[in-house]
Design goal:
By secondary structure, the protein is an alpha+beta fold. The chain has helices at residues 35-43, 71-75, 82-96, 113-121, 129-132, and strands spanning 15-18, 21-24, 56-61, 64-67, 140-144. A hairpin with a 2-residue loop joins strand 1 (15-18) and strand 2.
Length: 145
Amino acid sequence: MLWEQAEQLGGQAAAFPVAGTYLEHFYHHLFMSDHAIVDLMNELGIGDHLIWLDSNTGFFANNRIYPLTSAGDLLKLGFIRPIDRVRIGLVTLYLQRITKASGKWRKFERVTAWEWLRKAVGPTSRAPAYLRRNSSVTFAAVSTC
């Protein structure tokens, strides 16, 4: 027996068609700051199989992929209100500064990502309608290597 919440099988690895190709519903990646998984890979003897690739990240909305690799790209996302673009940028900057050594990550153990982001970035009621829909076909994060 197989349990799947979505209408199709595949979980986060499932894909949907876009412009003659397919995109995963959720992209899979590893950041250079993900020391725990890198350490585990080394401990298992497979660390030498890890290859770091430069990548470009984008945001798919309105049948278009918007570049989203830099702060400048964020500021150009015209479908998000300017004040919200600044807020998202500040939240991103804050989150990049949290390190294991600082201990600041501990406060995130008691709250879900959804709860924290709604407080930090604002309620979804301010987001454009297509960003509030519960449909990954409408929007998706895209990463290419």
